[in-house]
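Assemble and predict.
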Amino acid sequence: MTDTGLQVHSHSFSAMASPCEIKVETDDPALAVRLGAIGEVEARRIEEKYTRYKPTGIVSRINSAQGEPVEVDAETAGLIAYAAQVHELSEGRFDITSGVLRRVWKFDGSANVPSRALVQKVLPLVGWSKVRWDNPVITLPAGMEIDLGGICKEYAVDRAAMAVRQAAPDVPAMVNFGGDLATTAPKREGRWRIAIESLDPTKDTGGVLHIAGGAIATSGDARRFLLKKGRRYSHILDPRTGYPVEHPPRSVTVAAKTCLQAGTLSTLAMLRGREAETFLKSEGVQSWVHW
Amino acid sequence: MQLTEGKVAAALSLLAAGLLAPMAGHAQEASGGTDAGVSAPQRAPNAYDETASEPGTLVADSAVLFYQEDDDRVRAIEAEAGLTWNRSNGSTFSIKGTFDALTGATPNGAIRSNSVERFEPPQQRAKAADGELCPIDGCTSSSGTYTIEPGKLPVDKTFHDRRYAVDVGATVPVAEGLKLSVGGGYSHEFDFTSRSVRTTLAKELFRKNTTVSLGFNYEYDTIRPYFGIPDALGDMGSYSVGKSRLKKVYNVVAGFTQVLTPEWLVQLNYSYGHSTGYHTDPYKLISLVDRSSGDPFFSLYERRPFERNRHSVYFGSKLALGSFVTDASARWYRDSWGIKSVTFALSEHVPIGRSFYLEPGVRWYHQTQANFFRYFLYLDEPTPRMASSDSRLSRFGAWTLGLRGGAKVASNIEVYGSAERYWQYGLHFDRTLPGNLATTDLFSGSKSISVVGGVRVTFR
Amino acid sequence: MLGAALSLGGCAHMGAEPWQRDVLARKSMQLAREPAILSFDEHTYFSKEAASGGRSFDGGGCGCN
């Protein structure tokens, strides 16, 4: 490509149900392979630790405690504390206990909107305020569940990027897990180019964003909704009402210093529905909204 | 904690940084990470030891293929008839016609579901006045609305098509040891038309022991799906966005053939193909799956890149041992979609009696998946730029076991045939997937049987 | 590779003399034996697999892929 032999090497794998990629700009292919492996190991570690689907995981241990307190490790405590603070910042819109709503809101092709009574029945099982959180001990009322899926992938991106940076501090790399990404350093030749759905590909940018560094995350509802009697029910549920958020954008992309921050902001914007763009503007963050 | 607007981002920045900063300790280090036979003129012991294609002949060749996939999927009949005129000056002219008819069911790209799934084609802005979706009896490649029972692989059951194709070719010697070939083809289906032209220059060197060749092929395709061009990555059933699309394919093949010994011939080809245009399969869907339940919720139309670059290296070898011939070949392929494949084939020509031969053969193929291949998409993930769940773009392997045979039944008549079993294998279940997905069979590859019969008549 | 093979081609011990070509001229030694079976096979593989070509041009002339 160039006289310096500098090239962008790519390591791909699949984790957290997403296509993952670690790109490294270097003239040393062996280094790229090593850094790719380091990032992958970190992604797999977090996936293994926080999956809801393995009975051995910490999340299932908390969810199956039947009202008993569970003491968690430092990393998990950090994530839960983060989620608790975001819950407060979002005035209850962001809630890691909202997963049980999925028991009644089944997006399984049946197009069945649950009855009001059914929603009211599960609503008592939703709400972070009902959880007792004395860091590092969490006590969930029986029947309630937490799900860290909403922040785990972005967290994994940041952690993998950190691991790569630690191994090779000055080597530019980009960690991209299913569209949520973080860079470790500015590229030496040109900028990191990222294709974003929210950008109009017919414009002269070609839907491609050029960034020097930082992180980007996207939340999407896309075209996904339940349609009943002409009314669209989005896939994003408001834990305060138990009902879908009305008129959310198709997707929200946010650029920030860390992927976790970008991902949380884009999720919060989705939860604002029609107000998503206003919210992002008032926050003064760099964002792209696709309606 | 009551915060004024504008502070959420700042607070999050601190929180996220706080969460990530003290935990560098969690990071784990990756652990590294036969000698030339004397040829006295003698009568050949077997008909297939006779010299091939003599100048001054007219050869008529026709054959029929019966193709059937397991589970009542695609069934096809393909018939081919051709005439080749070998002139005594070394030039040849050929014309070939092909007809094929396909019926049966083909996977539509959606995943199996625990409930009844309903599928529909793109809507067209203006429907035919009589409301009939298929006004001609031939119908089109794909169908209207249909439903699939729980647990069954979603297939488009009314898949049928007919193809008519004609191909002409000529090879002329332009100088000593230098041959020029030109040709062209035209192929027509209800929803697809292809035209192609080609030319190859071949030069024989070193007492005809080496042949080098360079060929170029250009193909121009028109795709006209019956229900129009679907809105790529748009909802199933949404309005079509056009009537037809184009695709152009450029292909260069550099060939090298070498006689190693009087009984051993090897061939090495490098091929580069570049195509631009509509690569999307207009009849393929991709399921949107709810991450919580693991159930498919809805389907989108697939979308593939506008461009594809393909590279392949082919190596072939023919080695005679007495009247037996061992044919071995290998092919390595990769393309700009991220697919890499290898193919190995081995067959043995076995002469039987004076005028008969059998040729058992085996072929193994393996490919990796395209970088935009997904078995499904999640409902809550941002739609990727490209996505296809076509099993032909997935990671899989395939075996072929076959038996060919032929017999010279009169001085100028040969009959030949083959029977083959082809089966693909690949990932069925991914236990790490959420909910019902973990027990959903993701595999949609095929198994098939092909039987061919043909006859060739040579006029002098 | 081509260069190496070409130089080998010029080597006196390689190849076949014109009077040794009877085996190479046999029907059973032709590179494209039974072209009809070959084209049916390639058509089937083209419609079932992502890779194509190699032996000759990789076009397909059909809407099956």
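Chain A has a mean pLDDT of 84.
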